[in-house]
Every structure is written in C-alpha cells, then in structure tokens.
Amino acid sequence: MNNENENFLTGIKKFFKKIFKGGLGQLTIPVIAIALLVVFNIIRDPSFFSIAIQHNNDGNIVLAGNLISIINGASELAVLAMGMTLVTAACGGQDISVGAMAAIAGSAFVKVLKSASVINAPIVLLGFLMACLVAVIFASFNGTLVSVFKIQPMIATLILYTCGRSIAYWINGGATPTVSSPIISGIGSFIPGIPIPTPVLIVIAVAIIFKLVFHFTSLELFTQSVGINGSAARLNGINSTFIKLLSFMILGLCVAVAGTIGVSRLGLINHETLLLDVEMDTILAVAIGGNSLGGGKFKISGSIIGAYVIQMLTITLYAMKVSSTDVKAYKAIVIIILVVIGSPVIKAKFEKLMTHMKNRKKVSVKGAQ
Amino acid sequence: MMKKKFGSLVLVGSLMASLLFSACTSGGSTSTTSSTGSTGTAATATTASAGVIKVGVVNNPPSESGYREANVKDMEAVFSTANGYELKTAYSLKNDEQLQAAQGFITEGVDYLLISAAETTGWDEVLKKAQEAGIKVYLFDRMIDVDEGLYEAAVVSDMSAEGDTAVNWLLSQNLPEYNVIHIQGAMGSDAQIGRTGALQAQFDAGKMNCVVQQTATWDEAEAKKIVESVINSGDAFNVIYAENDGMAKGAVAALDEAGITHGVNGDVIVMGFDCNKWALRELKAGAWNYDGQCSPFQAQIISDLIQGKTSTSTKKIINEEKGFDAKTITDADIDTYGLGE
Amino acid sequence: MQDNTLLQMRNIDKLFPGVKALSNVDFTLRKGEIHALMGENGAGKSTLIKVLTGVYQMDGGEIFVEGEKISIRSPQDAQNNGISTVYQEITLCPNLTVAENMFIGREEGILVNRRTREKLAAKLLDELGIPARSTQQLGSCSLAVQQMVAIARAVDMKCKVLILDEPTSSLDDKEVNMLFDLMRDLKSQGVGIIFVTHFLEQVYEVCDRITVLRNGELVGEYLIEDLPQVELVSKMIGKELDELSNLGEIEEKEIENKEVFYEAKGLSSSDALPFDFEIHKGEVNGFTGLLGSGRSESVRAIFGADKVNGGEIKIKGEPVKITKPIDAMKHGIGYLAEDRKRDGIIAELSVRENIILALQVMKGFFKPISRSEAEAFADEYIKVLNIKTASRETPIGSLSGGNQQKVILARWLLTHPDYLILDEPTRGIDVGTKLEIQKLVLKLAEDGVSVTFISSEVEEMLRTCSRLIVMRDRHIVGELKGKDLNQAQVMKTIAGGEAKNE
Asked: Which range of residues forms the domain containing residue A330?
C-alpha cells in the first residue's frame, strides 16, 4: 500500500519534472496553460468543474456544467484548428477566410434542407455533402492562389474573407432561415440516450480520422517536408503544389464540419454572425499548440489543446461576469503571455535557468559530501 | 523586387475585387428593382386614368436587413396598382445614388416622393426642386437634416419607445421578483441603445435585478454561451431579455439543454425583438413570451395621409411600435407583421 | 614572445545537454599571425569560435585580450573587444550599397552623411585593394568581393582579432588568391587572423601556425613547418593514414564492356545547354570544371531537377521521359544535391524521417512505411554508414555537416538506385568522412551501381572516377580517361580544351 503510494508520488514527480524540462516538447506550453486555468478556477470556485447529470427539455439525460460547456463550445474551433494546422505546416501561412467559408458552407447546408419537403437523414447527409463540396471548392480557390500562384496565404485568403459572407448571403437570399428537426438538434446538441454533446463526439471523430489519415498515408511526412524545406522536398520527388492544395482542401472539409455544427446548434443560419471572428481564434489555437506559424513541424494534438485553452479562458471570464466586450481584451493579454512564453527567446532563457539551477544543485551535493 | 511588386499588384487586385463585389450588391439590386419598376409603369400606362397617383420611393436596398426587406415589401403592397398607385422605386445604400434617383423621379414627374435616406445631409437642393415642381415629399424610417417646410411629414420609429413598450409589458407581468439576464446587441448600434435604455433604467432604479448584462453582438451562439455560463454558475434568474430573435433563440437552446422550462407556463420568461416569422411562431407555440418590433410598416400611414383619410398636426409622426404577447398573438399577426418567411 | 600575444583562451569548457563540446581547450593567437584552427566536424572548432564571439557562453575558462581578462556575454561584447567574425554565409544586406553595408549598425555611421560615408568606404576599399565601388549594390558583387567587403567592414571597426570561418568554400581559385592577398596585407598590419577551413592546401599556403582540435579536446599547437600535411590529417582524425592513398583501382576495360545504363542525347534544361552523356553499369565518372562551368546544372538536368527543355533519354536502351525528379527516381536514379542545407536536409525532421523520405515518395502517398520498418531502416543505415547521432529521432539539423551528408546518402542508398548522382558529397565535411564516402562510392560501383561524382577537389575525383567530363563556360570541353587522368591534364583541359557541345 505504502509502496504503491510512493510509486504514485514518484510518478507525479516525474510528470512534473518532464513538464518543467520541456519534455512534453511543443505541448509544454498549452498543457501548462490548461493546468494554470484549472488551478485558478478551482481556487476561485471549487465547484467550477463539477458536472451535473440532469434531464433536458426533451427528456434526455445529459451532462452539464462548465467543463461540458468548455469542451462543447470549443468544438468548431477545435475542428478548424486541426485543418488550419495542416495549412500552416505546408504553406507557412494561414487561411483567414475560414469563418466566411463556414458561413457559406452552413448556408449551403440550410439551402438543401430548406429545399426538401421533409427533413430526414438522407436529406441531412445530402446537405452535409453539399456543404463539403462547396467548402472544398472555395478552399481550393484559396489553395490554388497559394500553391500555384505563390501568393502569400493571408493575402490570398483575404479575398474570401472580404466577400465570403456576401456569398453566403446570396445563397439564402438574405434571409436567416431556421430549420428544426430532431436530426438537426441531434447534431447540434444531444442525441437521445447519449449524455455527451454531439459536437464533442464529432471532434473526437474528426481527430480519429486525422490520426487514421496520418497512419494510412504519408501526408504528415510530406506536409512537414514541404513546409520545412520546399526545395529539398521537390528534389525528393514530392509534388509540393499538390501537397499545399491538399492541405487547403482538407481545411475545406473541416470548415464544412464546423459550419454544419454551428448551424445545427440552433437550427439557424445567420450568415453575418456564424463563427464570426473564428479565424483569429483558430490561428491562435494553432500557435498556442506550439506549432510554428512559419510552417514545418506540427502537432495536431497541440492545436486541439490550444482550442480548449481559448474556450476555457472565455468561459472562465464569462463565469467571472467579465463584460463580453472586455473579454476580448483579457483574452488578448493572456494569449500574448502564452505566445511570448512559447517564443524561442524565453525558452532559451528558461533552459539556461534550469541548467544553472541544476549545476548549483550538483555543487551543493558535492559540498555536502 | 519583382516579388514585392507582384504582392502589391495582388493587393490592388483584391481591393478591386472587393469593390466590384460591393458594387454588385448595391448596383445590382438598384438596376433590377428599377427595371421591375419601369415595367410596372409601362403596364399601368396603358390603363392609365386621371385617378392614378404616381409615387416615387427612394429607399435602402432590401438586402440591408430583414427589417428593410419587410419595409420594401410593405411599400410595394400598399402602393400597388390595385390601390390606385403607380410605384417607382430606387434602392441604394449610397446617398449620392439616392439623390440622383430622387432627381430622376422629379424629372419624370411623380406626384409624391417618399424617402428613406442613407445619410441625413445633402438633401436641401433636391427637396427644394421637388417643392418647385409641386411634388410632395414624405420621409419614412429616417429623418433628414432639412427645413421642416420642405416635407409634408416624417413617419419614423422611436427606438427607445420600443424598449419602453417591452419593459412595460414585462412590468405588467407582476412577477414577485425580476432576475434578468440581459443579452445586448452590437454595442453602440441604434437598436441596442434603444432596447437597452428602458431596461437599464429599471436596473438603476432597483426595480429589477440584473443577473448578467453581456453583449453577444447579435451572435446567437455567443448568447447561448452567456446563458450557459449563468446556468453553470448556479445564479437564479427568471427573465431573459435578448435584444434580437437570434440571441433569444440561442438563450433558449441553453435553457433546453439544462432542462429549464421557459415561455408560457415556464419558469423563465423569454423576450426577443425583430418579430421574425419563425420567432412569432415560437411565441404562438408558447415557447417564448414576448417579441417586440421596430415597425417597418410606414406605407399605410403615408398612404392614408396622401389620400386625406387622416391628417397630422405635427410633422414628425412616431410609428406605433408593436409588441406581441404569446397569449394574444394570432396567425393573422404572424402573416401581417412577421419578417422573412 | 609574451608581448606578442594578442588573444589567449585558457581551459575553455562548454557543455551542451548530454555532450561536452569543449573540454579544457587552450588557444593562443599572436599579433600579425594567420592561425589555422583545424579539426574534423564535431571536433569543437565552431563551438570555440562561437564562445569567442559571444554566441555561446562558456561554462568554464578564461579569455585574455592583450593580457587583460575580459568577459564576453554577447556578440556586441566581442566586437567591443576587437574580435570580429566573417562567416561562411554572407551576413550583409545585398540590397544596400557597399558603403552602406560597411557602416550599417555602427553608431558613428548615423552621424556621417552619405557622401562622406562613400568617400571613407572608397578609401578603405582602395587601401585593401578590393575591386568594388562604394556606391555599388552589394548584391551585384561576386561572392568573393562580398566576403572581402565583410572583411573590410571588420577591419574598419578596428578589429584586432579577425575570424574567418570557411571563407573560401564558395570561391574559385582566382578569388581565393585575392582573399589570401588581403589576409597577408592585414597580417602585415598586425591583425591576428583565425582561419577555419577544410582545404588543407590553403592552410599550407597562408598560415603560420596550426591548432588542432579533436573531440572537443586540444591535440596541440604547431608551427606550419613542423607539421607536414599527412601528419596534420592523422592528428585530425587520430589514426595513421595509409588508407588514404590506397583506394581500389578499377579496370576501365571491364567497365566499357558492360551495358550502358543511361544515355542522353542533346539533353538541355532551363540552366544547362544541350549535351550528350552516357554512363555504363558499375561506372564511376565525374563532371569537373570551375564553379559556374555548368557541371552541376548538367547533372541536375539528368535528374530533372530544373525545367527540362529537350533531349532524348534512354535507360538500358529504352527511350524514357524524365522531366521531374519523381520520373528520374522511378527509373532508379538518385541525386544528392550540391547545397546540402538548401536542397538536401529537412532540418527539423528526425534522422529516421530524413532517411526514409525518398523511398516513401517512391512507394507513394497511400503506402506509408510503417514506423517499425522505418526504424529498422534508420538503424541499419546509421550502423552501416557509421552516422554519429544521439538517436534516430534526433533532428538532422543538429548533426554535424558530415553526418548530415551521410544521412542524405542513406536516404538515396535506401532507394537502391541503379544510378546515383553525387554533387559535391564531400564539401565542407571532415577528412575521415570524406574517405568513407569515397570508399562507399567505389563499393557501390563494384555492386553494379553507376555513379556520377562531382567534387571541387580534383584530387578526390582522380582517385574515384574512371572517366572525367570536363566543362568550361557551360560546354563540355573534354573527356579524360586512362592515362590522361592526372591533375596536369585536367588543368590543361579546363584551361584550353576545345568546346565539344554546342
């Protein structure tokens, strides 16, 4: 018993040692950020993370609480961040039109549902496929500008960022149509009998799909090679134009998923507000996840954690009744701190401090002997 | 060097593209609607009799908002051929295009000119010309900075009256206690200021308790998060005052997930604004309690004035603000006053 | 003697996580001396230089300049103490003028107007005999002149110690001589120069003294007269060097009887003029010529690395089309690029990922090599090529140049090519590894692989190749084999042969 306890303690010790040594690699910063936010919230309100089991108005048993709100609310962001990570890695730049594209995809989704007399599973599937198709087409437009015409990603995607929501407006003729169906609420909130919000399950599914894609293709290796050294990648026979375009197309699929979740949450498409300003949060999620915004090596898991950090921050501020106008400012401050901590300059300083402390320890041990 | 040049070229290109797009949205609707206007003219011209009243309407395009869409439809419905009118319309978000259109109507020789201006300034010249030509001018929805003598009357909305109507309705519910979640629209917009004012006064006077006051900038998803966070914190509330329908819908989604009842016979009173058709249907179903509206329907009032059915002593006519109660709303109300489809 | 001492480094230690990069190293530089710092890659040369210039902080030891103890915490400190560096890669701004480059980042530069600045610069350039105008854009000068401008800049900043880190690696002979003249000039003015290079001949041409490092430790300091070249090499790699000259000879008759593996007629690319070329199975041949003679461009055309404009290509007698690298790879051709950093390594990826890259590309997007398979491949080649790396998961960027090169070699060997093109595989790497690579080339040829080998060291090519194609001004001007394969004949052909291709 005692032994077990000791093992447990040394395990924890090892874990913290690993974290402080930066042994988690690029995940160090996001993991520390989450840990700090958790500790802060528990101190502020011990019941902050308590999870309640309750009946919702449809009579289903569901989980509720801040933790669920955080994980649920970050779903669109997490899905987008996964796709954005790939684009960032391959192209060394970001797509700032994801919010506008999500509005387009969401509008296309609703358009299909609205044109059917009755909303059933095949129609919803058709709508989703239409959203995917539309999003991939627009993403390929961005991707072509970036990969073929070598335009900087931010500038290339500025075009859709500017006019994307107008396009979304045209799709449904300016109206903000609503759709209501058990299938839609099943996608956007809960499936009867499953107490976990469906968007959370979708995020898990998307993450698994990414994992499988990485396992069954060379996407990860090729993307990183193109991002780190395009010239060498080309001389090793990699078609970098295709890899870049592909990263945008995959992002397009993520946008379609995020747009569909966004629309399904309330059964409403508002092209002006659907996933508004999500592009900046998405890029931040990628950055907080320890991925270089200049491209190259990446970790999808980092970006997912990054998304949850951002959402946890938002919910924490809401719980503290910070005015939502101010939330953005607070968010900015915390994010600046995170990104600065993650910068190479601070990392180097920190490492130096660690080795210094280690040396001192050694000296004192020697002295004691 | 080449790269730099190319980059700036692309920048200029994308700017041009965005300009083109914006030109398309405004310009496109102007041309299509004015062309339908002119075919309408041609049709009526064949059956023209002395009794036809020619009306020129200068308005913002229907794509501006759901409000404007309803407003435009209302104008077209009231000033119809059946009602003895010949309607010409011009829609633009730009003041100078509106001025040109008004000028055009004056040259064509309309009997009445109805204006909802994009900007409050720059209209003196045109209105004077209208006066010289003997054309009577009515303003609707928006005021213009000109001498009162230049127009017959202005039928406008009073945003704060809208908030007053809603808060008065809330007070009339005689709840033992008012714990309000107040979800605001984009801060600083006319609608937000008008809809917040009356409620803020109640908070300040201590008659109602503000559980949380947050802006969701018209974003329904944000509204849901705000309500979710209140539910999670365990604070008690019995009223949700959302400054538009979308945010009310977001708030209700949060209530539904938490298993909190709302609407008629529910624990929480839900209030929204805008009177979208879908929102009024929620109201009719008893899921919500109240929906307020900044009325887009000024056409009938103006028509009555033109035909002499009513008269006005003041130049400024405040359009009556509607507010619907879930208990009294009818299907007819939904058809008449609901926005959108 | 003591008076003469300019810089003294004593008992320098430098630790990196898990590695002791420098251990108790002494180094002494005297006034008016050119002092070569020699050692294999990973011996600690760069680390010592970086400690001296404030890029790294030492973990132990002392530094004295003119007898006074100083502490160097940043490059700025080093500069203030009169220590300047000119790196291998030019670190100036090519889009500014020569004069601007000489004054950029110096306080006194702000107060001086453009005209005076240009005048001062022109005067200095003239004094040092540097063939550049002060108003000229730096980017329009040749690499050598750019390097000399960097030196002039350092000199003008009143430097006492000038460090030249591989200054000659991208210069041709004429330019090297210009640089050496400048170095001798500075030496006569009393500047102490630390010269880091891989070119042994150059050391014997200009240096007075040599300090040799091995594995982060000091081997010794020698006067140039006391240390013949062969001994220097053995000191650097720590073993006697009989092997160096004993590389196997290959009978060229044997090769000519074998089938032709690759044949090109009129092959041209955006960078290479049309040329004819063929290589037999198991043959090692080489392209030689000065920098810019078109030797690299020609082999790039073979691999499809640049845009191919025309030409007929046959592999084993069958006509094929090779327009991009993947085509060449599918036909069994591998290409180790000249610029390892730019075209070879994927710096942040691990040794394992770098090794499997080309094979993975050939297998295709949908057939990834499994992790365990990849690890097996990596382990195998780390062992076969004796790659010095902490583990197979170490990022390749943190390996020394020679080991990086071995990883890239492993990458191509793993594809089991029939024809391997090696463009400068031994540039910037240490003697020991050079030898290993040369041996490997001959071993490959024995196994029936055709190899094209390019090196700027003619000596090395003569040792490995059985046929040399000589280029000048983007034309093939001669083909040497058999008894013609000697330094004199190569030089003669480079200097004055008749153009062969149009």
From this structure: 323-369
pLDDT band at C335 (very low <50, low <70, confident <90, very high): very high
DSSP assignment of A267-323, as one string?
A: TB--TTTTTTTHHHHHHHHHHHTT--TTSSS--HHHHHHHHHHHHHHHHHHHHTT--
Residues of B in contact with A196 (CB under 8 A): none
pLDDT interval class at A20 (50, 70, 90): low
Quote ipTM for the complex.
Answer: 0.84
Smallest Cα distance from A266 to chain C, Å: 39
Which site among A44, A48, A57, A198 would you substitute to test the B interface, given the most B Cβ atoms closer than 10 Å to its Cβ?
A: A57
CATH class of B32-151: alpha beta
To test the contact with chain B by mutation, choose from A196, A268, A324, A330 the residue with the greatest count of B C-beta atoms within 10 A, namely A324
CA distances from C412 to A158, A197, A238, C466 (A): 41, 50, 15, 22
CATH superfamily entry for domain B159-294+324-337: Response regulator (3.40.50.2300)
Cβ pairs bridging A and C (under 8 Å): 76
* C-alpha C368, offset from chain centre: 34
For the ranges A21-30, C222-231, C325-334, the lowest mean pLDDT is seen at A21-30
Q: Would you place residue C502 in the very low, low, confident or very high pLDDT band (cuts 50, 70, 90)?
A: very low
- Are C420 and C458 found together in one domain? yes
SS3 B47: coil
- Tell me the two tokens of residue B127: 């209105």
Rounded distance between C-alpha atoms, residue C325 and residue C348, angstroms: 23
Confidence (pLDDT) at C244 = 45
CB A271 within 8 A of CB A105: no
Please give the model's pTM, rounded to 2 decimal places.
Answer: 0.77
Q: What is the mean pLDDT of residues B100-113?
A: 92
Domain extent at residue C269: 256-496
Backbone angles phi, psi at C388, to 5 degrees: -90, 105
Domain assignments of chain B as residue spans, ordered by start: 32-151, 159-294+324-337
Would you call C346 and A229 a contact, using CB atoms and an 8 Å cutoff? yes
Q: Is the dihedral of CA C348, C353, C359, C364 positive or negative?
A: negative
The pLDDT of residue C218 is above 80: yes
Does residue C132 or residue B63 have the better pLDDT? C132
Chain A positions in Cβ-Cβ contact with residue C368 (cut-off 8 Å): 215-218, 221
Q: Which residues pair with C210 in a beta bridge?
A: C36, C222
